[in-house]
UniProtKB/TrEMBL annotation, chain A:
Entry protein name: Binding-protein-dependent transport systems inner membrane component
Alphabetized UniProt keyword annotations: Cell membrane, Membrane, Transmembrane, Transmembrane helix, Transport
Main location: membrane
Matching Pfam families: BPD_transp_1
Gene3D superfamilies assigned to the protein according to its UniProt record, in alphabetical order: MetI-like
Source species: Azotobacter vinelandii (strain DJ / ATCC BAA-1303)
UniProtKB/TrEMBL annotation, chain B:
Protein name: ATP binding protein of ABC transporter
Cellular component terms (Gene Ontology): plasma membrane
The organism of origin for this protein: Azotobacter vinelandii (strain DJ / ATCC BAA-1303)
Keywords: ATP-binding, Cell membrane, Membrane, Nucleotide-binding, Transport
Domain of life: Bacteria
Matching PROSITE patterns: ABC_TRANSPORTER_1, ABC_TRANSPORTER_2
MF-aspect GO terms: ATP binding; ATP hydrolysis activity
Cellular localization per UniProt: Cell inner membrane
Parts forming coiled coils: none
Main location: membrane
Topology within the bilayer: Peripheral membrane protein
PANTHER family tied to this protein: D,D-DIPEPTIDE TRANSPORT ATP-BINDING PROTEIN DDPD-RELATED, OLIGOPEPTIDE TRANSPORT ATP-BINDING PROTEIN APPD
Keyword S-adenosyl-L-methionine set for record: no
TrEMBL record, chain C:
Pfam families referenced in this protein's UniProt entry, alphabetically: BPD_transp_1
Protein's name according to its UniProt entry: Binding-protein-dependent transport systems inner membrane component
Membrane topology: Multi-pass membrane protein
Main location: membrane
Source species: Azotobacter vinelandii (strain DJ / ATCC BAA-1303)
Location within or outside the cell: Cell membrane
GO cellular component, as recorded: plasma membrane
Source species taxonomy: Bacteria, Pseudomonadati, Pseudomonadota, Gammaproteobacteria, Pseudomonadales
Chain ranges of the ABC transmembrane type-1 domain: 69-258
Keyword rRNA-binding (UniProt): no
One Gene Ontology MF term: dipeptide transmembrane transporter activity
């Protein structure tokens, strides 16, 4: 149990360090004079002059050796000081917290819809394995999986927003704006996970212990609830850990497509603008969300599976 | 008395090939029947047919009646209602048949709760009583992974019969268990047979003897001979039954045990070996000297470290303490191993002949040595054209022996080399193995869970645990 | 050791061969300039001269699709080759030798897995915007992890398995064991992984193009083409459909070829 926390804690630390280091490298690689650029970010391009740039240079100590700047950079990170955005000039931390809420809302809604689709579809396909429903689910999943998530989003956008005008095209101003991006993300997640549920449940139903439970006298429903659910959940959970990476990637794409004011959009936008502190903050937060979700999956596995617990 | 289970002229076909032909039997209350025969003789098909679990690709004819009702007239639902309540089936692999995530007691208690609709408290109490009845009172809170094979089979026995079924079907219930645990399961089945009836499938004669009642010998899906256990086991009338019964190690000719024990110069000497596994001490301070051409037996309960000891002697596993010294001047590849599962010794999907050719080329051996060796081991040369999984277990084990002998081994560690083979083949392979080892002056360390087998062919026996 | 393809895998292979054939033939026979503009001829419908029509700048869609497919296919091939060689080599060594090297590599692997692949690629894209070599490096860096994990797990199992133990005892060397035991066990899962990896590389490239942080215009790249043509979806839906269909077919073909998910 403690081992789980330590492993994920180590990963979280690595996320911060690696993103921080990349951020530092990015900062040094920016074209043009960094001090000038930061000054421009603060005062706007019109009011920047050499004097302002010099003041910034002195303030940041850019004349000192790189390794000292690097250490200071990391130290700032430790204090959660992510610096100011080069574009808006506002503190990155505040902007990130604002974006984080939107991202969590979208991710939560998408996951909920994905579960509501994948679990019933997967289970029903498994109960009637090789039947018409199973085959239809297989074809639909293969079709959806072959689309990049942004094409699914694009099609939904074309049909439901631009042609039928049922939902708004982009942005965020109320629940109606959530529907299309959440469904697009959910469809891409459910396309894979319904097959995982199907295979996992199918394996359990074909297992020797399930057959034995039936032979003991339990009905199919009793045997499935008592023996199928927990055993079947383990591979699904293990897969969830892998799929989370895909979900985070999907968030970046879908948020960009729908101009959803979240971290993924923020990250892509910042990369486009070369707004290094924002890149760093957004990437780091996405990485930390990923590590946190993985920890949640670990804990769920730990709860479901009594084997190998230290308290045995 | 009305029979509980009655089968008339049952035949099962896979396409046109019969797996089971014209079997008739009936079991009344208090009767026990054990079906003997080599693996693949359609025995397991019989139990599947009785449970109504035949794969749809198979076709059955004849009739099966339970309590006088023909199974063919029952709906699927009515058939499933018999499971656990009238019909119980003991699984072949108890570890796989138990839910790996559910504690032992609950796997029995749920039958009382779900099938007999008892409240949780009573179900738990009944489960505790059942477990205590088979000596598992301490194991109620354990997971199946924490149980030994014998314990898992006893737990499966409790779970299978908790629903009150009186007709018990057991398919090789003692597979892989050592003698004591095997006898315990046989005793449980005998007792159960006094209340209801028990149909057991086995190739272990001792199981048949201990369960008692009647014995039916089958071969190639056809019943050969039926009669009271003592009569069939002591005075079989058909030729095949004779061979089957003679194949039990208890009937093998005994080799002379030479008391003077003057084995040749040592090929392997171990001193002060110790090994722990999973917090359990397997052995400690073990000294062993293996002489040239010596045939040495190694026995002990499953999990006592027999395989570990062999692997340590071969240098495949590091001991926790002690050392193994080989005779000087002998090449490493003259210390070899035979595996329990014959296909495990060969690379998959490659014709065996190519593997043999690889070996001959590697050690620049004379290829003309192979044919006489195959002939000595009664192997047809065309077998080499096939990959390992297309060759029967008995032939494959002999091919493994042939491959080892090509390298003129001085020490062979045979890890349960015949436990996966049926008795007639097993006897043939062990006898060939010991005689060619003697001819080639190769020391043999023979591991078996069957003390009787080792007793018959080894001059010296080492007991672990 | 020959691989037998299942029917689904054959269909996938056929789709891919078709797309690759189109990309190569366009290059050999047509050799149009994907950047040549002809503003007077914007959104020309498909005709004999321009079988796929033209885009908003009157550029030949045939030339652009050919160039974009070549780019996607070559980049994915390069990424898969690089990451597979690296992952297989390190995986075999780590799974076979165990010990310190295995622990060090596994430690780094766990750390690398802490960042979602696309986020890492985005960071690298930020390092050098519009640079193809940087994208290649970033995608390969993300992909090799899978090979390493799978190969290491297989190598561990095979090395400890009785068949290989028997071969070692009979005196066979490492090369023989690799050829007879390890390689046959790895081949099918590696083919699957390579196909999934190639699909991943194609998707990553298109995704970056789509959010405008990948390659820069006027490069003909599938994701970039989608985002550029999207505003004109009602004027010329057939033009927008082309890159969408190309990505769909590429990924579908690769996923069919991969067979079951490893």
């Amino acid at each position: 149990m403690i081992h789980l926390f330590l492993k994920r804690l180590g990963q979280a630390a690595f996320v911060c360090w690696s993103v921080g280091t990349l951020g530092f490298a990015l900062m040094r690689l920016l074209p043009g004079d960094m001090a000038f650029r930061i000054a421009a970010g603060r005062y706007g391009y019109d009011q920047v002059n050499l004097a302002a740039a010099e003041a910034v240079r002195a303030e940041l100590g850019l004349d000192r050796p790189a390794w000292r700047l690097y250490l200071e950079w990391l130290f700032d990170l430790l204090r959660l000081d992510l610096g100011d955005s080069l574009v808006s000039g506002l503190p990155v931390l505040g902007e990130i917290l604002h974006l984080l809420g939107h991202t969590l809302l979208l991710a939560g809604a998408a996951m909920l819809i994905a579960i509501l689709i994948a679990v019933p579809v997967g289970l029903f396909a498994a109960f009637r394995a090789e039947g018409w429903f199973d085959r239809a689910a297989l074809v639909a999943s293969a079709f959806l999986r072959a689309q990049p998530v942004f094409v699914i989003g694009l099609l939904l956008l074309l049909i439901f927003a631009l042609e039928l005008r049922l939902f708004p095209v982009a942005g965020f101003d109320g629940a109606r704006y959530l529907v299309l991006p959440a469904i697009a993300l959910a469809l891409s997640m459910a396309a894979v996970s319904n097959r995982v549920v199907r295979h996992s449940a199918g394996a359990v139903i074909a297992s020797a212990f399930f057959a034995f439970a039936r032979v003991k006298g339990l009905s199919f429903a009793q045997a499935f609830v008592r023996h199928g659910l927990r055993n079947g959940a383990l591979p699904v959970l293990a897969f969830l850990g892998i799929q989370l990476a895909g979900a985070i990637e999907g968030i970046v794409m879908i948020e960009s497509l729908f101009s959803w004011p979240g971290l993924g959009h923020g990250l892509a936008h910042a990369v486009f603008n070369r707004d290094v502190p924002m890149i760093q903050g957004a990437a780091m937060t996405l990485g930390l969300i990923f590590v946190g979700l993985n920890l949640a999956v670990d804990l769920a596995c730990h709860l479901v599976d009594p084997r190998g617990r230290s308290d045995e | 008395m009305k029979p509980l289970l009655r089968i008339e002229n049952l035949s099962v076909y896979a396409g046109d090939r019969p797996l089971l032909e014209n079997l008739s039997l009936s079991l009344c209350r208090g009767e026990r029947l054990t079906i003997l025969g080599e693996t693949g003789a359609g025995k397991s098909i019989l139990i599947q047919a009785i449970m109504g679990l035949l794969p749809p690709s198979l076709r059955a004819s004849g009739s099966i009646q339970i309590d006088g009702r023909d199974l063919a007239t029952l709906s699927r639902r009515e058939l499933e209602c018999l499971w656990g309540r009238r019909l119980a089936m003991l699984p072949q692999e108890p570890w796989h048949a138990l839910d790996p995530l559910m504690r032992a007691g609950r796997q029995v208690a749920e039958v009382y709760a779900c099938v007999l609709r008892q409240d949780a408290e009573r179900a738990a109490a009944n489960a505790r009583r059942d477990l205590a009845g088979v000596g598992l009172e301490q194991a109620g809170d354990k997971l199946p992974g924490q149980l030994s094979g014998g314990m898992a089979q006893r737990l499966a026995f409790c779970a299978a019969t908790a629903g009150g079924a009186q007709i018990v079907l057991a398919d090789e219930p003692t597979k892989g268990l050592d003698a004591d645990r095997r006898d315990h399961i046989a005793e449980l089945l005998r007792r159960k047979g006094e209340e209801g009836c028990v149909l057991t499938i086995s190739h272990d004669l001792e199981v048949a003897r201990r369960i008692g009642g009647r014995v039916l010998v089958m071969r190639g899906g056809r019943p050969l001979e039926e009669g009271p256990a003592e009569q069939v086991l002591n005075a079989p009338t058909t030729d095949y039954s004779c061979r089957l019964i003679q194949a039990a190690p208890g009937h093998w000719p005994r080799i002379e045990r030479r008391a003077d024990g003057e084995p040749g110069p040592a090929v392997l000497e171990a001193r002060g070996l110790a090994k722990r596994h999973g917090g359990k001490r397997l052995f400690q301070g073990l000294d062993l000297r293996v002489g040239r051409g010596e045939i040495l037996g190694l026995v002990g309960d499953s999990g006592c470290g027999k395989s570990s000891l062999g692997d340590i002697l071969l240098g495949l596993l590091a001991p926790d303490a002690g050392q193994v010294a080989r005779a000087p001047g002998i090449a490493r590849h003259r210390y070899l191993k035979l595996y329990q599962d014959p296909p495990a010794a060969f690379a998959a999907d490659i014709p065996l002949g190519r593997l043999f050719a690889d070996l001959l080329r590697l050690h620049r051996l004379d290829a003309s040595r192979l044919p006489p060796l195959l002939e000595r081991l009664r192997l047809h040369p065309t077998l080499l054209e096939r990959p390992a999984h297309e060759v029967s277990g008995g032939e494959l084990q002999r091919l493994a022996i042939a491959r080892a002998l090509l390298l003129e081994p001085v020490f062979l560690f045979a890890d349960e080399p015949v436990s996966r083979l049926d008795p007639i083949t097993a006897r043939e392979v062990v006898q060939l193995l010991t005689s060619v080892a003697t001819e080639h002056r190769c020391a043999l360390l023979l591991v078996s869970h069957d003390p009787e087998l080792v007793e018959r062919v080894c001059k010296r026996t080492l007991r672990l645990g | 050791m020959r691989l037998r393809l299942k029917p689904g895998q054959r269909i996938g292979a056929a789709v891919l061969v078709g797309l690759a054939g189109f990309a190569v033939l366009e290059w050999l026979l047509n050799a149009g300039d994907p950047a040549a503009q002809d503003l007077a001829n914007a959104f020309a419908p498909p005709s004999l001269g321009e079988p796929l029509g033209t885009d908003q700048f009157g550029r030949s869609m045939l030339a652009r699709m050919g160039a974009a497919l070549r780019l996607s296919l070559l980049l994915s091939l390069l990424c898969v080759t690089t990451s597979a060689s690296l992952g297989i080599a390190l995986g075999v060594v780590a799974g076979w030798r165990r010990g310190l090297l295995d622990r060090v590599l596994s430690f780094f692997l766990n750390l690398l897995l802490a960042l979602p692949g696309l986020v890492l690629i985005l960071l690298f894209a930020g390092l050098a915007p519009g640079s193809l070599p940087m994208l290649y490096l970033a995608i390969s860096l993300v992909l090799w992890v899978e090979y390493f994990r799978v190969v290491r797990a297989i190598a561990r199992g095979v090395v400890a398995s009785p068949p290989m133990q028997a071969s070692r005892m009979l005196g066979f060397g490492r090369l023989y064991c690799f050829r007879r035991h390890l390689w046959p066990a790895m081949l099918a899962p590696l083919l699957s992984l390579a196909a999934f990896g190639a699909a991943g590389a194609i998707l990553a490239l298109a995704a970056l193009g789509f959010v405008s942080v990948g390659l820069k215009p006027p490069t003909a790249e599938l994701g970039l083409m989608m985002v550029e043509l999207f505003p004109y979806y009602s004027d010329a839906p057939w033009v927008l459909a082309q890159p969408v269909l190309a990505v769909f077919l590429l990924v579908l073909g690769l996923q069919l070829l991969a067979g079951k998910h490893p």
